Amino acid sequence: MLGLMANHKSAKKRSIQNKLRNAINSKYISRIRTALNKFNNAIKLKKNEEIQKTFSSVNSILAKSVKKGIFKKKYVSRKLSSLSNQIKKI
Known about the structure:
Layout: H1 9-45, H2 48-68, H3 73-89
Helix pairs in contact: 1-2, 2-3
C-alpha cells in the first residue's frame, strides 16, 4: 500500500474487519479445496468407503461456509448435486 492509510476512525475499523474477514474466508476456502481434492482422488481410485467419508466432509464444510456467508446456498446446493452425480456414475 503506497501511503493509503485510513484517516477516519470508522475507516480504520473497517480496514481491520476486512483483514480479519479475509483471513477467515481464505481459511474456509482452503479447507474446501482440500476436501474437494480428497473427494476427487477417491473418485479416481473408486474407493466407495473413502468416497462416502470425503463426500460427508465436503458437505459439512460447505454447509458451514453457507452459515458463515462465504458462499450462497444455491451455489452449494448445485455443487453437492454435481458431486453426488459423480458418485452415481461409478
